[in-house]
Here is the input.
Amino acid sequence: MALDLTSLPDVSGLTVGILGGTGDQGRGLAYRLARGGQRVLVGSRSAERAVAAAAEIGPSVAGAANEEVAAASDIVIVAVPWEGHGTLLASLRDQLRGKIVVDCVNPLGFDKQGPYALPVEEGSAAQQAAAVLPESRVCAAFHHVSAALLADPAVDRIDLDVLVLGEDREAVEAVQALAGRIDGMRGVYAGRLRNAHQIEAFTANLIAMNKRYKAHAGIRITDV
Ligand SMILES: NC(=O)c1ccc[n+]([C@@H]2O[C@H](COP(=O)([O-])OP(=O)(O)OC[C@H]3O[C@@H](n4cnc5c(N)ncnc54)[C@H](OP(=O)(O)O)[C@@H]3O)[C@@H](O)[C@H]2O)c1
Here is the structure.
């Protein structure tokens, strides 16, 4: 079957929460989704930091503690460093029950030779999220989207494909639709969570390209 973006669900009325929304990636996604008309809540371990970040991002964005954001959102994006990932999600199991959780975390290390993929016991950050949140609808997406491009108001379109992985077809389609709310982006189904490792790890290759070519590289899937 061909990719039919017109058949994706309407997610325009859903509230999107971002855990770690005070960081580069969270701020960038919040700005870009709000610019596309989405209602966005940014979360933080500190409600004060979240409120301050939301005020900086834009008038249609609100901020609150991660727990409140998780409870008040329909779709929750996880944008915290790998180091805090498992602990934070375990603490939000109740608030995230039944919700679509979108993991964009890339477990990477950095040394003199540059970025490299870290081994993850569960296979990937997304699989760790699914293990910690058995009653949530965990998907993986937005790993390859540059925070700098997302946050730059002078950038009108970001031409790339967002690879969306997951076990729950309806949840995957909602995340594909969410990606499509950002001008230039398509959400493309890219397999089940057991294949998330290489998607997360591929970010190390993109960072290497960005360093060499002074770029914000993204990917486009051909013939889809
Ligand atoms: N930056 C990018 O271009 C990019 C692109 C694609 C994917 N990603 C992924 O997105 C995630 C966030 O990246 P980032 O660059 O935005 O990171 P970041 O700025 O270092 O962290 C994001 C936010 O996470 C919170 N945080 C930090 N340590 C935490 C911990 N131990 N437990 C819970 N929360 C913690 C902080 O918010 P509070 O202190 O306010 O709680 C921080 O502002 C990473 O996993 C990264 O792999 C990043």
User: Anything to note?
Assistant: The chain has one domain: 11-213.
